[in-house]
Amino acid sequence: MDTLPTTSTAKRGGRSKSVQTSKPSILLAFFSCVAWLYVAGRLWQDAENRNLLTSLLKKNSEQRPKVLTVEDKLMVLGCRDLERRIVDAEMELTLAKSQGYLKGQRQQTGSSSDRRLLAVIGVYTGFGSRLKRNEFRGSWMPRGDALKKLEERGVVIRFVIGRSANRGDSLDRNIDEENRSTKDFLILDSHEEAQEELPKKAKIFFSTAVQNWDADFYVKVDDSIGIDLEGLIELLEHRRGQDGAYIGCMKSGDVISEEGKLWYEPDWWKFGDEKSYFRHAAGSLVILSKNLAQYININSVSLKTYAYDDTSLGSWMMGIQSTYIDDNRLCCSSIRQDKVCSLA
């Protein structure tokens, strides 16, 4: 009898514990349902947003204008006149290039062949070379009326010089004053006269000369040599009518890669492992036919210059249809009796 109440109390205590432990489970299930409903609602809302965006994009794509052709764009922008001018410019450029460097093509002008000059001779000079210029004027280079008579024979000679780094200074004024007196200068206003700028001077000289004079040949001469003018004229007369002529005392040589040495070439690595220059005319006296000078004029912006003008000019001649003419009479240090130049 004493044990019955005890047993009954234990069972009641067990049921109370079971009821208490089920409450957290119910709360967890409730919050899980709430979380599931929240996530499902967000997913449904995102799906609705995607559908809305898709419909808007589809509507915009349908309303977007069709791709315009080039002709439509030109009409909209009013560029028909520009298009015509571009076509004309391309035709003119093609014609100019064909006359400028293609072998066998000569520029057609209204003048007869006997009115074309034989040659334009440019004698390089500097600001401090007035005494040497006067020496040339008193020897092989005509002056005054004799210079005009030479031009009537078809040969123009000019001293070639650029401008001072300080434009308008006494150096420029002295050259202008000398030119007013002698009238035998070709002043390159776009060129800054400096020793390191000689390769650029070659480009500007040939470009300026071919623009100013219509001649068969354009000749570059250093002021370190003397000229047998009649011998040079005879040589040019013999070559007259030959297109693509690159004439000079042809040479080659080692490329100097050691900085600080004489004739150092900063771009030495471009000449290969052998470090040898390509064949080119010595810079003291170089002759180009008209179409080669025109080629330099047309392409001067893109022509690469090296450390020296003779190798720069030689590199320009390599990529076009030029005829290399190695004439020993143009080797100024030669012992030939009929050479047309000598070291001054």
From TrEMBL:
Gene Ontology, cellular component aspect: Golgi membrane
Keyword set, alphabetical order: Glycosyltransferase, Golgi apparatus, Manganese, Membrane, Signal-anchor, Transferase, Transmembrane, Transmembrane helix
Localization (cell): Golgi apparatus membrane
Pfam families named among the record's database cross-references: DUF4094, Galactosyl_T
Cofactor(s) recorded in Swiss-Prot or TrEMBL: Mn(2+)
Alphabetical list of InterPro entries matching this protein: DUF4094 (IPR025298), Glyco_trans_31 (IPR002659)
Pathway, per record: Protein modification; protein glycosylation
Biological process per Gene Ontology, one example term: arabinogalactan protein metabolic process
Gene3D superfamilies named in the record: 3.90.550.50
GO molecular function: hydroxyproline O-galactosyltransferase activity
Primary location recorded for the protein, binned into one broad class: Golgi
EC number(s) per entry: 2.4.1.-
Domain DUF4094: 22-99
Keyword Transmembrane helix annotated: yes
Enzyme class, UniProt record, top EC level: transferase
Membrane association type: Single-pass type II membrane protein
Claim: Repeat is one of the keywords in the record: no
Similarity comment: Belongs to the glycosyltransferase 31 family.
Biological role stated in the UniProt entry: Possesses hydroxyproline O-galactosyltransferase activity. Transfers galactose from UDP-galactose to hydroxyproline residues in the arabinogalactan proteins (AGPs). Is specific for AGPs containing non-contiguous peptidyl hydroxyproline residues. The addition of galactose onto the peptidyl hydroxyproline residues in AGP core proteins represents the first committed step in arabinogalactan polysaccharide addition. AGP glycans play essential roles in both vegetative and reproductive plant growth.
Protein name: Hexosyltransferase
Species of the source: Cicer arietinum (Chickpea)
